[in-house]
Each structure stands twice: as C-alpha cells, then as structure tokens.
Amino acid sequence: MTYHPIHRRWRSRRLLWWMLPLELFGVVACLAMFGIAQPDTYRTTMWEIGGKEGFNSAPNYQVYFAANYKPIPTTPFVWSQTLTDFNVAISIISLFTLIGKLILIIMRLWFPIASIALHTCLATLYIVSIYGQMGPDHMDPRYPSNIAWYIRMGCDVAEKYGDAKSCKMAKGSFAAAIYMIFVLLVMLGQAVWSMLPNPDNDIKMADDDDDDDESSSDNGREKGWEMTGFRSPMSPGGRSMMSGRSVPFTPRTQAFHTLESKLPLRS
Question: Which residue intervals are annotated with compositional bias (Low complexity) in the record (predicted)?
Fold first, then answer.
C-alpha cells in the first residue's frame, strides 16, 4: 500500500459539489452585508446607542482627551473602520477563491491537501471577523464591555432611537460570518477525512501507477522493435529471430507472403 499525500481522491465528490452552492450563498450574503456596512452605515450608530445606554464607551470619549491634550485612546476594534474594511476584503477574497476552486474541481485538479490549506486560512480570517464584531470595548473604564451590546441584548434597545433596522443589519453581518465559519469547517473536515489513510484508495492508486508504468514500458518496447524494422521475439511470426536469423518485417512483406501462398495460379 502506497500513501499519496498530494494527488489523493476525494472520498465523496457528491458532497464536494453540494457544498459549492452552500458556500456561494454565504459568500453572497457576506458581500452584501459587509458592503452595506462599508460607508459606516451603522457602526458609529451602534456605538453611540451603547454609549447613551451605558453599555460601552461613547464616540465623544476621545474628544475629551483631545481637548485636554492627552493621549487619545485607541478606538476599539469592534467600532473601527479597520474591521469594516477587513470584512469587505475577506468577502472579496472568498468570492475569487470560490471561482478558482470551481475551475479546479471541473478540471479535476482540486485535491484535499489544497483544500486544507485554503479553508484553514479562510476560517482563520472569519474567526477574526467574528471576534471583531462581538469584540470587547474597554476604552472607557467606567463602562467596560466584553461583548457588543446588540449581540447579547438584541435590537429592542435600538427601537427607542429609531435604529432597529441598523441593529438588525449589524446582527445579520455577524450571522453571515458565523454561517461561513460553519461551511468552511465542514469543507475542512471533508478534506481531512479524505487525507486519512484509506486502504481502498491507496491500493487503487498504487495499482493505477503500476499499470501506467507497465503500459508505458510495453509501448516503448514495441516502438523500439518497429523503429528497428524487426519483429519482437515474443510476437507472432518471430520464430526466425529465435533461431538466430534476423528477418526484416514490414506490412508489405506479409502481404507478399500471403499472395504467394494463396494465389491458385502459383500452385
């Protein structure tokens, strides 16, 4: 039995194809939700509502430090533009990787080891996104927050300010990232399952390699005999070479022998 770590077969190509539309659905959802959030559609609004309710720091907290010529504290990652740009970037990367993966699957060049590398990287990126969206806010020591308020409390608070729709969009972005994590982990598990030692898979691949080697050697041997113009000693009609005499053989020679032996007038 020979273990092939690179060119391994998928144990279930049907599952591989079924995961593609599920991944496409998640990528489209992330592109839509993260793209809407790109121009600060609801990020600062959620930050302000949480500050008014005492759930987290307020955006004007940094203004106090700037007015008093003090070092301005860093904006929490959950409310930063960096997180928004990061989410848009990973959604675009996911789209292009999905297109490339589809092409490789059609060409039968998509192997489990490549799936493990790609989906591990993508899953890590989406985990960072989830951490950022629900991340802590300790900028104001009076109102520390370990989890964003709209995730742990819901959107009832935002209704008082007329921003329930913005709150639902923020929760939708978080849900889309979680969905992508689930899909990526399933595909990662499928790839790991295909990489595990499988006697049937490994033996079959080893047999295929042996057959290819034998066929290539046979073709090379026959080609060599044809180029020299002699019959192989093991081929039909090669008895002359076994007896020590080398007789040139061509298709026209055999035709002449047939005519001489079967024409009635020759007898």
Answer: 231-248
